[in-house]
Amino acid sequence: MVTVTGVVETTDRHGVIGRPGGEPVPALYRRNTPLTKASVTLYGKFRNSKDSRLDVLHALMARVGELLDGPAAEGQSQSQTQNGQSQSQSQGQRPAEAVLVPHEGVEHQEAAAKLPRPPATDYAHAFIGAARALGIPARYVTGYLLGDEDEASCFHVWAEAFDEGLGWIGFDPMLQLCPTDRHVRLAAGLDALSATPLRAVPAGDGTIEVSLSVTVE
């Protein structure tokens, strides 16, 4: 067991981290990893955008939420009748492991709202992968999210993307906001594997002896 106590002072800077000293060059975080491969569905519409990078990043955060929240949010499937033919149009999609429900009116919406949401890790990886596909440096952040008075604090993850003017800016695509003073930042890396806030190292020389006993009756 590892126990850490102390006081962390945080400031709400609307997600702007800036350019902390002693960090790797931002270009390092353009490199994709197996965990951050994003579908063109996420970023395709932003490829030729004339908007500022900041506007693109905010729109990208909204896009990630729209697709990953799926029918549990405002992306419920809609049935349309056109030219005498019934068409089912899905505005969102859920992860492959989620259970799909029939696309029928209010009952569908109520059932969809009960579907499990993807973990924060999925939102962060999707945002980072889409940003990198657009040539924008982005990285994975681990930390804590302070709860309200009646809520316990919890481990949480989000993303940061680089803007030439403002430096690093935080984006929490699961909560659909830029990190506030409730976000306690611990570590940043290329993805979840490289941003683990705590790692264990085996004692000794790392050699593990395994014994096996077989009894034949």
UniProtKB/TrEMBL annotation:
Protein name as annotated: Transglutaminase-like domain-containing protein
Coiled coil spans: none
Alphabetical list of InterPro entries matching this protein: Papain-like_cys_pep_sf, Transglutaminase-like
Region entry Disordered, spans: 71-96
PANTHER family for the chain: BLR5614 PROTEIN-RELATED (PTHR33490), SLL1049 PROTEIN (PTHR33490:SF6)
Residues annotated as domain Transglutaminase-like: 114-175
Chain intervals with Low complexity compositional bias: 75-93
Organism per entry: Devosia psychrophila
Pfam families, per the entry: Transglut_core
Gene3D superfamilies reported in the protein's UniProt record: 3.10.620.30
